[in-house]
Predict the structure.
Amino acid sequence: MKEIKLFDYQEDMKARIEKVLCLHRSVMVQMPTGTGKTYLLTAVIDSFLKENPNTKVWIVAHRRELVSQIEETIRKFHAYSVSANDSLLTSVKAMSIQWLMRHYDEIEEEPGMIVIDEAHHALAKTYKEMWKRFPKAKFLGLTATPCRLNGKGFTDLFDVLVQSWDIPEFISKGRLATYDFVSIKSNGVTQRLIDSLQKRGADGDYQNKEMDMLLNKRPSIRRLYQSFTDFAKDRKGIVYAINISHAQAIAEFYREHSIVAVAIDSKTPAEERRRLIERFKFSNTNNSNNTNSSLFTLYSSLPIQVLVNVDIFSEGFDCPDVEFVQLARPTLSLAKYLQMVGRGLRVAPGKKNCVIIDNVGLYRVFGLPSQTWNWNAMFEGRMSKKDVQEAVGMHIANTAAVISEKVEPVKHEVDSEMTMVISHDQLEQIFELQKEDEEIARKREELLKGEKGKVEFLDKQLVRLTDPNNHIAYVDLTNMNYITWAFSEKNDTSVPRVVNIGGVEFVKYRQCLQTRTKSALPIEYKKGCVQNMGFYSRYLYGAGFRMCRILENDRSHYGGHCAVFLHNDPMAYYWLSGELHDGSLVVMSEDHCYYWVEEGKTKVYIGCPKSYEEEHKMNERLAEIVKLTNLRESNVEQEMDDEKLKLLEPCQIGSKWGLRDRDKRVVVPPIYRTIRKENGYFAFEQLFNHWGVMDSQGKVVIQPKYEKVKVTAEGMAILSDVTGKTQTINLR
């Protein structure tokens, strides 16, 4: 096993926690699920014991399973950390809150520190007793979700909250896995069932009995299985069920369909539970597919692909290679939701992403797992249920707006109950956009503080900056780009201004323009140099500028002397590689990445030929794009033919058939026994069993001499003569 070493963010959190503990008696720490809270607390404890060698540290958890996991983490940390000392084993005791309540009167020693794991479970009446009995002890609470269903805060127990990075930052830096999020549609059967839930339990959440009555049915479980096969069939993962019978029913249904699945709950014997969990942790989905369910028993050694549970693995469960999480249990608790989906966000070797299958519509209640929350407001009890709902609504609306405007949409089956809310590719694009926006905001704030010199507003978007040496420059606040050539000379009164040319905004200074994209392009203004092409504009320039790769496609034309500005993309300008015959573009960014762009959509990454493999990949993508555009052209031609076909209709006059147009004028005289439409053509019978074919204009293209005629959607005529011989003719 590798030596345990804290990550940079854990070291930072450790330093901050220790600093705050010097100032306060009780501290709560927030870190997202899967970011190593237990290792962090162990490191904090180890340092505390080094500073206070004659004291004890208690770790209190609300479930005995968590106690065992904490003890195992402490042993690992001691064995593999170069900094750990022996007191970490001898001076640390892990226990459940239930055990502690029963043995208060038997305890003679007073701990120097009490650590509360999953501290969002800390109820004032139960946990406050520790504060009273041990007045000299420090208290450290750890949680991913410092929130309560009733909206009350934690200031009755803890003095201050220390927060880590939020989930988007952890994902962006590779410390948490990215994900696909799939949810039921708002008008689907399951959502209507969940909307009908009326009763609430003692904790304020949905009542278990009512959920079971509505959702623990074979049709509902069949829908669970269908969504699993659609989005996670070859993945290993966890299903969260309502109760024991629901978990068992799901596992049984999955096994009936050759999926190795087991149900684990609080009543599963401890040894059996341990054995099944270990099998699951070391299971490889490559070996669990297509397994004959008749061979499977709970005691077999087959790899477990699906672990169905009831709240057992919502907290403290460490299996990084979980590749999907399926939510089959509704909840009104934000903490439960984030704890459940968090099981799938841990990173692991070979794991690319996680699929979250939301079969109970929690997305519309709590938004995406990567939503940024005001944890401090929740910690202080300043965030009501209404505030949470408003935050979720704004998050959902903003996410949908960004996807529709700036991110490539994801297609989904129209007749499915499920819809793809966001893919991992979309998520990464959104994080990148947010990162760039945050950087621009940081630079803007820094400039406006006046530390770089005197700032004068020319308008709401442009400022003049005079540095301490009286040098003057101009800055565009929308992108924080300097107008680099715009330095005032003596007696020069001209200033930059925003102009709209060809549908694109530029900053104009004298005879020069600069784009307002995040990556600015300084260009020389000439009349007619910017052309609006509908969904993009292009800047035409003379020879001598950079050129990019010519598409290997004779039906495109090379655009080596222009730059492109996409109207729905404020990120940058692009060098035009090719305008394809269907109107789409292939463009290249400044870092030599190639993108395919269509009207009404955002750019699609093709490749970045920094290596042979990437070059090969890009060539393959280009070939695919060319093939697709050719297919589209063919479809357009077919649609045009179909439209022409609509102009002529078979008509019967007496006992004979002909063709007439929309004005009811006869175009083909009624001389045939019958005429029928077939995929853009007309099959006609002149004599008995003498069939031929006309085109959309009524022109005979196959003479009437065949016993049978059929025209396919691909424009192929299948002809059979009286002898039974068949031949095929391409009509296009």
Remarks:
- The two ends are 66 Å apart (CA to CA).
- The domain at 171-430 is CATH 3.40.50.300 (Rossmann fold).
- The longest helix spans residues 612-646.
- The chain has four domains: 8-164, 171-430, 454-635, 647-730.
